[in-house]
Amino acid sequence: MDLFGGYNPSLSRLTVVSQKENLYHFPIVCNQCENAYCLNVCPAGAITRDTSGIVVIHKDKCIACGLCIEYCPIRVVVRDPETGKAFKCELCRGTPLCVEACPTGALELVSKHTPKGKIDE
Ligand code: SF4
Ligand code: SF4
Protein backbone atom coordinates (compact mmCIF):
# COMPACT_ATOMS: atom_id res chain seq x y z
CA MET A 1 0.00 0.00 0.00
CA ASP A 2 1.51 3.30 -1.07
CA LEU A 3 -0.87 6.26 -0.99
CA PHE A 4 1.72 9.02 -1.46
CA GLY A 5 4.21 7.50 -3.87
CA GLY A 6 7.00 6.90 -1.40
CA TYR A 7 8.16 6.53 2.19
CA ASN A 8 7.71 9.76 4.17
CA PRO A 9 7.06 9.69 7.93
CA SER A 10 6.10 13.38 7.88
CA LEU A 11 2.98 12.41 5.94
CA SER A 12 1.85 10.02 8.65
CA ARG A 13 -1.49 11.08 10.07
CA LEU A 14 -0.87 9.60 13.48
CA THR A 15 0.48 12.00 16.08
CA VAL A 16 1.98 10.88 19.38
CA VAL A 17 1.30 13.31 22.22
CA SER A 18 3.67 13.17 25.18
CA GLN A 19 2.76 14.40 28.64
CA LYS A 20 6.19 14.66 30.14
CA GLU A 21 4.97 15.37 33.65
CA ASN A 22 3.48 11.89 34.01
CA LEU A 23 5.42 10.10 31.26
CA TYR A 24 2.17 9.35 29.45
CA HIS A 25 2.28 9.03 25.67
CA PHE A 26 -0.73 8.44 23.50
CA PRO A 27 -1.47 8.48 19.78
CA ILE A 28 -4.09 10.72 18.21
CA VAL A 29 -5.57 9.56 14.95
CA CYS A 30 -8.80 9.96 12.99
CA ASN A 31 -11.62 8.18 14.82
CA GLN A 32 -13.61 7.53 11.61
CA CYS A 33 -16.41 9.20 13.61
CA GLU A 34 -19.93 7.85 13.54
CA ASN A 35 -21.13 11.43 13.08
CA ALA A 36 -18.20 12.71 11.03
CA TYR A 37 -18.16 16.50 11.04
CA CYS A 38 -15.59 16.55 8.25
CA LEU A 39 -17.92 14.58 6.02
CA ASN A 40 -20.96 16.64 7.00
CA VAL A 41 -19.40 20.03 6.22
CA CYS A 42 -17.59 19.24 2.97
CA PRO A 43 -19.29 21.39 0.31
CA ALA A 44 -17.83 19.41 -2.57
CA GLY A 45 -18.99 15.94 -1.64
CA ALA A 46 -15.35 14.97 -1.48
CA ILE A 47 -15.67 13.02 1.76
CA THR A 48 -17.61 9.78 1.96
CA ARG A 49 -17.69 6.65 4.08
CA ASP A 50 -16.75 3.35 2.50
CA THR A 51 -18.35 0.00 3.19
CA SER A 52 -15.83 -0.68 5.95
CA GLY A 53 -16.81 2.50 7.80
CA ILE A 54 -13.67 4.37 6.82
CA VAL A 55 -14.18 8.08 6.17
CA VAL A 56 -12.39 8.76 2.89
CA ILE A 57 -11.32 12.03 1.23
CA HIS A 58 -11.47 11.90 -2.55
CA LYS A 59 -8.62 14.08 -3.81
CA ASP A 60 -10.14 14.50 -7.22
CA LYS A 61 -13.22 16.21 -5.76
CA CYS A 62 -11.51 18.24 -3.03
CA ILE A 63 -11.51 22.01 -3.72
CA ALA A 64 -9.11 22.72 -0.84
CA CYS A 65 -11.60 24.92 1.04
CA GLY A 66 -10.29 23.76 4.42
CA LEU A 67 -13.67 23.35 6.12
CA CYS A 68 -13.00 19.75 7.13
CA ILE A 69 -9.75 20.88 8.73
CA GLU A 70 -11.59 23.54 10.75
CA TYR A 71 -14.48 21.34 11.83
CA CYS A 72 -12.70 18.17 12.85
CA PRO A 73 -12.93 18.29 16.66
CA ILE A 74 -9.55 16.66 17.17
CA ARG A 75 -7.81 18.43 14.29
CA VAL A 76 -6.52 15.39 12.47
CA VAL A 77 -7.17 16.63 8.94
CA VAL A 78 -4.26 18.48 7.31
CA ARG A 79 -3.41 20.04 3.98
CA ASP A 80 -1.21 18.29 1.49
CA PRO A 81 1.71 20.73 1.31
CA GLU A 82 1.94 20.35 -2.45
CA THR A 83 -1.70 20.48 -3.51
CA GLY A 84 -3.39 22.25 -0.60
CA LYS A 85 -5.98 19.50 -0.58
CA ALA A 86 -7.09 17.79 2.59
CA PHE A 87 -5.88 14.42 3.76
CA LYS A 88 -6.13 12.35 6.90
CA CYS A 89 -5.72 8.82 8.15
CA GLU A 90 -7.85 6.45 6.11
CA LEU A 91 -6.52 3.36 7.86
CA CYS A 92 -4.47 2.61 4.72
CA ARG A 93 -7.82 1.43 3.35
CA GLY A 94 -8.14 -1.32 5.93
CA THR A 95 -4.61 -2.45 6.68
CA PRO A 96 -2.87 0.30 8.67
CA LEU A 97 0.86 0.19 8.12
CA CYS A 98 1.49 1.91 11.47
CA VAL A 99 -0.03 -1.11 13.20
CA GLU A 100 2.24 -3.43 11.25
CA ALA A 101 5.31 -1.27 11.89
CA CYS A 102 4.88 -0.65 15.62
CA PRO A 103 7.71 -2.62 17.28
CA THR A 104 5.93 -3.07 20.62
CA GLY A 105 2.45 -3.95 19.45
CA ALA A 106 1.09 -0.79 21.03
CA LEU A 107 -1.24 -0.17 18.11
CA GLU A 108 -4.25 -2.30 17.31
CA LEU A 109 -7.06 -1.89 14.80
CA VAL A 110 -10.42 -2.34 16.51
CA SER A 111 -13.99 -1.73 15.42
CA LYS A 112 -15.89 0.44 17.86
CA HIS A 113 -19.16 1.24 16.12
CA THR A 114 -21.45 0.50 13.26
CA PRO A 115 -21.30 3.49 10.94
CA LYS A 116 -24.43 5.40 10.07
CA GLY A 117 -25.17 7.59 7.11
CA LYS A 118 -24.35 7.32 3.46
CA ILE A 119 -22.12 4.41 2.47
CA ASP A 120 -20.17 4.27 -0.80
CA GLU A 121 -21.44 1.72 -3.28
S1 SF4 B 1 -11.36 13.68 10.39
FE1 SF4 B 1 -12.09 14.30 12.42
S2 SF4 B 1 -14.33 14.55 12.16
FE2 SF4 B 1 -13.58 13.41 10.38
S3 SF4 B 1 -13.91 11.26 10.94
FE3 SF4 B 1 -11.78 11.79 11.53
S4 SF4 B 1 -11.88 12.44 13.68
FE4 SF4 B 1 -13.97 12.45 12.86
S1 SF4 C 1 -10.83 20.78 2.00
FE1 SF4 C 1 -11.59 19.33 0.44
S2 SF4 C 1 -12.32 17.54 1.59
FE2 SF4 C 1 -12.09 19.25 3.07
S3 SF4 C 1 -14.15 20.20 3.17
FE3 SF4 C 1 -12.99 21.32 1.60
S4 SF4 C 1 -13.47 20.27 -0.35
FE4 SF4 C 1 -14.10 18.89 1.32
Note down, in words, how this protein is organized.
- This protein is an alpha+beta fold and 121 residues long.
- It has a single domain, classed as 2-Layer Sandwich (Alpha-Beta Plaits).
- The chain is built from 3 helices and 6 strands, in the order E-E-H-E-E-H-E-E-H.
- The strands form 3 sheets. A two-stranded antiparallel sheet has the order 1-2. A two-stranded antiparallel sheet has the order 3-4.
- The longest helix is centred in the N-terminal third of the chain and has 5 residues.
- The model has no long low-confidence stretch (mean pLDDT 87).
- The structure holds iron/sulfur cluster (2 copies).
Global structural class: alpha+beta
CATH architecture: 2-Layer Sandwich
What is the name of the CATH topology?
Alpha-Beta Plaits
Overall, the morphology is globular
- Strand percentage lies at 15-25%
Pick out the low-confidence regions.
none
The helical percent reads 10-25%
Rg measurement, Å: 15 Å
Order of helices and strands: EEHEEHEEH
* Number of strand segments: 6
Number of domains: 1
